[in-house]
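Board notes (copied after class):
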Amino acid sequence: MFLALLPMLMASGQPDKKLYVNKVKSICPTADIIEIEVKDDYVEIEYWCNSRFFEVGLNHRQEIIYNESEAEIPDNIMNTIQKRLDKNHYGWVIDEVSMITYADTSFYKIELLRNGIEENVYFTTDGRNYKIKNMIADEEWNQDELLRYDAFRNAPYDFLNPNKVYDLPEVLKEVLGIALYDEQTIFCVQDELGIVFKYNLQNEEIEGIHRFTDKGDFEDLAIVGDFVYILRSDGTLFYFNHKQYNGKVEQVMVPSNCMNIEGLFYDQQSKTILMACKDEPVNAKGNKRLIYNFSLGEKIKSEIAITINLNEINDFIEKKYVGLTRNKVFFNPSAIATHPITGEQYVLSADNRMLAIYHDSQLKDIYPLPSEIFYKPEGIDFTASGDLLISSEGIKKGELDGQILHFTNKSNR
């Protein structure tokens, strides 16, 4: 079992690293701290203890979530594991072996290398394949709590039971945006690499890549005819013809009143592009988030299509999900898509994990999403029949893969 998203470590700033160092020192008084990395979800500390390397994950209360250490696998167990590697990862070379321990289980992580690509595989302590799963760990809601509400039984999708989960390869652990090209092909972009990945849903493998620039902060992408448009967080769009790609890439800046933009979607019905701002508008109060739309052309003029009101979001949750949470939630859009049949806009928030539905720019519904299923929902799209696809980022340097979750439209059943 692996952790799901923890609450923000501190709502008003960085956590006190000394507290986390003291926790490590209580484990190993002679610990030599190598690195402390503050993530959205937890604090990760690498250290040496008695000439051995360790990595520990601590939640905001300095409680141990997991512990990872170098390991030597007994020969009889390694022989079993090697047979599985020869069958499923022929040609890969073992780089590192470690033991990961949680409160309820321990398992081996084996890092493999081939042609400069790294992939992690997991095995139980007796050599069987180990499947990483999420677990709930100190957050606002979980799957069992959400089952109590009629809202989920009456929802257009069974958000608590995806029909299919695609576990993405290691290079797409940080998958953010997705855009469906046809029923079998989806384009993906990840956080830092200036590469568009073409992923085959039927074969469940990458079948092509297009490098369009160097590293950057890329958030989402959209398909317009034969062109792929990739969004950088500052509002810059990179675009190229993926069918006749010769390395030529154009770019254009989309005007907006926000500094951090994460969602992009091409609306086939209106022939316009939707763009979602994650943070509040510049020089404005922090309780609003903006969705823009614009048409492609020589000179782009964007207009506000939807204004998301965080107070309205919280009021909606309080009335529809009575007793679910006593804390204010933050809805910061990470992706947006238009339903091909209803015309409604579905807006994701990776922060606090929620999906909001807007109709004619008005909030129609909202669904809290459990971390057992959605670790960090960052991308969204629909099939032509209205089935829903949501991509969920994996854990950086962690054990959870990036995923694409498929939900069947209930009206098609």
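Comment from the instructor: The domain at 143-412 is CATH 2.120.10 (Neuraminidase). Confidence is low (pLDDT under 50) at residues 1-13.
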